[in-house]
Amino acid sequence: MTELTVVSSQDCVATPDRFLVLWQDLDSRRYHRVGFLERDAVGYSFRYEPTARALTGFAGFAEFPAWNEVYRSEPLFATFANRVMTARRESYERYVESLGVVGPHPEPFEVLARTLGTRATDHVQLLPVPRRNAAGSLSLHFLVHGTRHVDLDASRLSRVQAGDTLYLAREPGNPQSPVAVLVGASPEPTRNAALGYVPDVLSGLVRRLMESYPVVVTAAHVNQPNGGAAPDHMRLLARLDAIVPDGFEADSILDV
């Protein structure tokens, strides 16, 4: 197996061209695949997962009324464009900076890949499907979740700098998620010595990668809460790199 070395947080991560659209059932707290959002050289497309219509409580999206249609658009559909802050907002520059994005006007898919399209007003998230590059590496960014709960005063985060190695550990006794993965600045992090968690919707993929392939995680961007540049849920942007075999398809092991 090819050895994976620690990468620079400034090395390029390819922006994904495909997202799984997920909807959370609040009773079971389980995420379900309800659609696919993709882009190509001419624009964007969306289609529902065949099983989405049968999900109790999921009514679909108003912009896409037909369950069996493949929708296409040159600009990004409003349903998903609304999940990216508009450049007209006064706080836009701080928002882009807090995501560690290079350049003042990132493309929407780059932002969605880091934020998962999360909004407080609904229970839909967009899960990027990372692709393997020619060197055999798969890379993705994610915002570390739960930082305020496990590192309330950010005392551990204050010692982390961009480029530092981060570590992952399963937390099988977590009462909220049976697939929880902790993120820490020291090997084998525990809840009492962690920075936060891998987002729930990514934890299935991350656990599978941890079990089967060489994985390296680094701090890509750090937003100290006393700096006022970002809310608590955007304190730490992490980068994961894994060496995967030829023919590896990330969406085949995404477990949601």
What does this structure look like?
- It is a single chain.
- The chain has 256 residues and is of the alpha+beta class.
- The protein has two domains: 17-128, no CATH class; 132-256, Alpha-Beta Plaits, CATH 3.30.70.
- Helix content is 14%, strand content 26%.
- It is built from five helices and eleven strands.
- It has helices spanning 78-81, 92-98, 108-115, 147-150, 200-212, and strands at 18-24, 31-40, 43-48, 70-73, 124-128, 137-143, 165-170, 181-184, 196-197, 215-222, 236-243.
- It has a six-stranded antiparallel sheet. Strands 4-3-2-1-5 form a five-stranded antiparallel sheet, with no helix packed on it.
- The mean pLDDT is 87.
First and last CA, distance = 28 Å
The number of helical elements comes to: 5
- Just name the CATH architecture of the largest domain: 2-Layer Sandwich
- Unreliable residue stretches: none
Major sheet: size, sense and barrel closure? 6 strands, antiparallel
Short description:
With 256 residues, the chain is α+β, with helices and mostly antiparallel strands. It is built from 5 helices and 11 strands, in the order E-E-E-E-H-H-H-E-E-H-E-E-E-H-E-E. It has a 6-stranded antiparallel β-sheet with strand order 6-11-10-7-8-9. A 5-stranded antiparallel β-sheet has the order 4-3-2-1-5, with no helix packed on it.
